[in-house]
Design brief:
The chain has 485 residues and is mainly β. Helix content is 9%, strand content 49%.
């Protein structure tokens, strides 16, 4: 953490010392909201970079543009009242390498977007125009689930070093909102992200980045809020801090995956709040032959979110086994509702997904022969609705072998549809430790609080599990060894 902060401080000092300010109007960039400024903005960026660096300053106005590419030593400063507006014409966007978006970078250094202004992708109109061009055959696209597959992100910053996003407002992407892919030394600070314009609008996607801090942000997204991904087998997310953020989502709040080809290492998730979120507050997945190791989740608070914790190992591709180990989740508070948490928002989560079903427990679910190892759950309080209905049940505690192994399934806490516990379901795991954990069900539930299946080496100290008229066992265990209660 100290290394990250020192590096970012040195970067900031260096940029301030060498920067020269250029008003956008000097390059003929128009603020009327109708003139397409793509060429003039790009000329300004290229010129400033060639001159050794500086700030391109946008004052009050609306600046219409297609794809622009950040270059070395250039900061875009969006003043309060300045709006960088994305074109709604699909042909005003282009790819460079893996980057496809309104604002992109590819192998750039010392770049930043700062200020109190807005980047608005007009994503709903843009996505619908993509649909129109696909319909007439002008654009070829996979077109899955009624959606264009290949759509511009709002920001896609790729293979770059010393990247800062600070204070800005990101709105209305047509796809993932802000993707940082193989970025080294990344600071995202105080950004407001409001992106519910279309399907799959993730908030921040941190892809195989090293030395990254995402802090003090507000995220309102149709898909995962802050999502760490690993798309490349020879690299991973390493030394990443996610702290003091507030998130609401029609998917998961904070998520590792789904893509996990390389892995996740040395990650700290500190003092975040998740609310009104359709899936999990925190989900950590290793399902693509990669790894998740040395991860700390501390101080997470979750309100009106369908699931608190989901850890999962899968094997969706290739023969290399996925693995997960050394996970600590502590000082977590969560309230789980009985009703759909994101009801009524734009592009809410699937209304009929796996319904009807009972409210599902938290999960720590490995694979046979690929157990999740060394997980500590400490100082955790979770309030469940309870009220499980046995008429929905697919599997009872007397037939745990019927819970399916799902190594190639898309991993979500709801993938099993029904599980025979109301608090925690733990399967294929080694070294699981609960300390000072309180689980409360508001209504009586026919299921036990905790089910253990093929768990070797587990301890439970100061565990409290309560529900009205609770007559079932707190624990049910199958094929387990060295369990200490």
């Amino acid at each position: 953490m100290r290394k990250i902060l020192i590096s970012l401080l040195c970067l900031t000092v260096a940029l301030v010392a060498s920067a020269k300010d250029y008003n956008a109007s000097l390059f003929g960039i128009k603020s009327n909201g109708t003139t397409l400024n793509t060429t003039s903005i790009q000329k300004a960026i290229d010129f400033i970079s060639a001159e050794g660096g500086g700030k391109l300053i946008f004052k009050v106005g609306r600046y219409l543009t297609g794809t622009i590419e950040l270059k070395d030593n250039v900061t875009i400063e969006l003043g309060e009242g300045a709006v960088l507006v994305g074109s709604t014409n699909p042909y005003d966007y282009y790819k460079k390498g893996d980057a496809f978006g309104l604002v992109i970078s590819n192998e750039a250094e010392n770049i930043a977007i700062t200020g109190l202004g807005v980047i608005d992708g007009q994503g709903r109109e843009l996505a619908n125009n993509f649909l129109g061009q696909i319909a007439v055959g002008a654009i070829k696209d996979l077109f899955t689930l009624g959606r264009p597959h290949d759509r511009p992100h709002l920001l896609y910053l790729c293979k770059s070093k010393n990247v800062t996003l600070q204070g800005i407002n990101l709105r209305n992407s047509s796809c993932w909102t802000c993707t940082t892919d193989r970025v080294e030394n990344l600071l995202i600070d105080g950004v407001t992200l409001d992106s519910r314009a279309f399907w799959n609008n993730d908030g921040f996607d941190i892809v195989d980045c090293t030395h990254a801090v995402i802090q003090n942000c507000f995220v309102n997204a149709t898909d995962d809020g802050i999502c760490l991904k690993s798309h490349h087998k020879d690299v991973c997310n390493d030394d990443v801090v996610v702290r003091h953020n507030t998130i609401t989502s029609s998917a998961s709040g904070i998520k590792f995956g789904t893509f996990g080809v390389g892995g996740f290492r040395n990650i700290q998730i500190l003092d975040n709040v998740v609310y009104d979120t359709f899936r999990s507050a925190i989900t950590i997945q290793s399902v693509d032959g990669g790894f998740a190791e040395n991860i700390l989740v501390d101080g997470l608070k979750s309100y009106n979110t369908a699931n608190a914790i989901y850890l999962n190992v899968g094997q969706r591709r290739g023969d290399k086994p996925s693995r997960m180990e050394n996970i600590t989740i502590r000082n977590l508070y969560a309230e789980i509702p009985v009703d759909k948490p994101d009801y009524g928002v734009d592009y809410e989560g699937p209304t009929l997904e796996d319904q009807p079903r009972n409210v599902l427990p938290c999960g720590i679910v490995g694979l046979e022969g690929q157990p999740i190892r060394n997980v500590t759950i400490e100082n955790v309080e979770i309030h469940f609705p309870g009220g499980g209905d046995p008429s929905f049940a697919k599997v009872g505690t007397y037939e745990l072998e019927k819970v399916p192994e799902m190594p190639t399934a898309y991993p979500e806490f709801s993938q099993y549809k029904e599980l025979p516990a109301w608090g925690f379901y733990v399967r294929h795991a080694k070294g699981i430790h609960f300390h000072n954990v309180t689980l409360t069900a508001a209504e009586k539930d026919y299921r036990p609080a905790i089910v253990l299946d093929d768990v070797q080496g587990a301890s439970f100290t100061n565990l409290k599990a309560t529900a009205p008229k609770l007559k079932t066992k707190i624990f049910v265990a199958r094929n387990c060894g060295d369990i200490k209660k």
